[in-house]
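Subject: sequence -> structure tokens, single chain

Hey, anyone have a minute? Need the predicted structure for the following. Not urgent.
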Amino acid sequence: MQSFDVTVIGAGPGGYVAAIRCAQLGMKTAIIEKRKTLGGTCLNVGCIPSKALLDSSEHYHNAHEKFKTHGIGLTGLKVDMKQMIKRKNEVVSQTTGGIDFLMKKNKITVFNGLGSIKTNTTIDVTDDAGKVETIESKKIIIASGSKPNLPAAFNYDAKRVISSKEALDIDKVPKKVIVIGGGVIGLELGSVWARLGTEVTVVEYQDRIISTMDVDCSKELTRALKKLGIKFLTKHMVQGVKATKTSVTVDIQKRDSEETLQEKADYCLVAIGRVPYTEGLGLENVGIAMDDRGRVDINEHFETNVTGIYAIGDVVKGAMLAHKAEEEGIYVAEWLAGQKPHINHHLIPGVVYTWPEVAAVGSTEAELKAAGIEYKSGKFPYKALGRARASMDIEGMVKVLADKHTDEILGVHMVGARAADMIMEGVALMEFRASAEDMARISHPHPTYTEATKEAALAATDNRPLHI
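Reply:
Had a minute. Here:
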């Protein structure tokens, strides 16, 4: 029987980063992955392939809509969806291959198969052929991730009623797609199709899309996506989905009303969130506690109720984000090494990779109001930026929320070009508990999109933006 100091179950961003950090800290480390390739959902059928398609579709959209204005003429412009999918697959292959290299570099033993906890120090690994190998490990980290939430009522068949996984491999531009769910996944994939000419309808139960983010972000993104041609049915719920070999019919009811309608499309994407993946992990064998949402219960150091077994990422409480899982994996590795790591979950940024992008960190206005915290707000529109006008990316805004009395930054919310990268200024400053005035007095290069952050901070400090 092979023995290890630490064994990680799951090779997604949380799992493989945890394994690398454990190995760096001198622990003999193993990782178990049920897929044939490492990287988990994120690298194989999530973050990486979706961003590849988002970029490809944005190139086409710009060529179709903006090149003429830039003085660039084209003839015969068309979408080659098969090539787009091929490029996406190449990006995935290169990225997952990079994880293989990192495992070898850090001398981490990789087991391909389903890892099932037998005792708090032993794990059975079952490969595709059914062969079982038992390994011994002093510590175990569960990093099994999540899977799409696919209620039986939606009749998911992976052909016409699809999840985000199948959506990444459609090699012909659909005429029409119904998206159930106005969250990150639905909007990102919906925008891919809309840019390529697909008629997209988003059905969302809440009053607005990206409902967990600041209301101004929701308003800005709704406006931008409507210009792209996406139709939104907010305050609506799906009553049923029926598929044939060539199409799908979705029955929809207006919330708090008897009013109904029916939509027919080529595909129906179910994007109502994800649920923890715990099947086959053997949690019941050692009595690992779970909460009412199927997540593994943990303490402040990510240890379960069973000594020596830890859990991180999508399988535990909190936002289902790759970078959250990474930070938690690093935390556990360093905690096991006797260090004193730290994570502030409140300052883990969230991003929507539509165009314009949406990014946020800290509290929303609604959260501050609910908590009774007195605050001040400053906003600055992208359309007032010289850089945005030069690139024709004038949609969006930056919003800075600060404590009314201390001026400490409490939240930063952005919609606009490169917001996903720009949000790090807000994260870094909030980690050091900076004030809005600190943000405003930092020199921001001109012309850049980041000037909107400076201007929003000036507006929040004492209502003195310079360029509006």
